[in-house]
Amino acid sequence: MKRGLKRQRGMTLTGWMTVIALILFFAMLGMKIGPIYLENLTVKDVVESLKDEPLITKRSASQVKSMIMKRLDINGVYDLKSDHVKVKKSPGIMKVSIDYQVQKKMVGNIDILVTFSDQIELISN
């Protein structure tokens, strides 16, 4: 019995291959999803920066939308199109909402689809 326990140490080759395959899968998933979420952080920063803009509620909805798209272009956000940005203006309040999806290829016919929705309400100051 003692001899059998000494021979049964460690993982088999199949066990190691399974562990390595799982590590590689999650590393690849992280490399694909990470940039998508970093890009969304940039979108949130651009939308939040509108709060610091003086007299933002005095501008037209198309001017605000154009301002957002220029800032996104400067920051290298290319997955977001102008029809994903909605600006609704009412007296003293402007609501900006950005709803979009990012689809990236993972492996073969497997894709990653991530949906984002950001909203902000701008009040005249």
**Structural class estimated from helices and strands:** alpha+beta
Question: N- to C-terminal separation?
Answer: 82 Å
Please indicate the count of domains: 1
Helix content: 40-55%
Secondary-structure element series: HHHEEE
Q: Low-confidence stretches at least 5 residues in length (pLDDT < 50)?
A: none
Shape: elongated
Give me the Rg, rounded: 24 Å
Q: Secondary structure elements and their pairing?
A:
Elements (H helix, E strand, L loop, with lengths): L1 H6 L5 H37 L11 H14 L10 E6 L2 E15 L2 E14 L2
Antiparallel strand pairs: 1-2, 2-3
Short summary of the structure?
The protein has 125 residues and is α+β, with helices and mostly antiparallel strands.
Short key terms for the protein model shown above:
28% strand; alpha+beta; 3 helices; 125 residues; elongated; 3-stranded antiparallel sheet
Report on the structure:
The protein has 125 residues and is of the alpha+beta class. It has one domain. The protein is built from three helices and three strands, in the order αααβββ. The chain has a three-stranded antiparallel beta sheet. Strand 2 and strand 3 (110-123) form a beta hairpin. The longest helix has 37 residues, at 13-49. It is elongated.
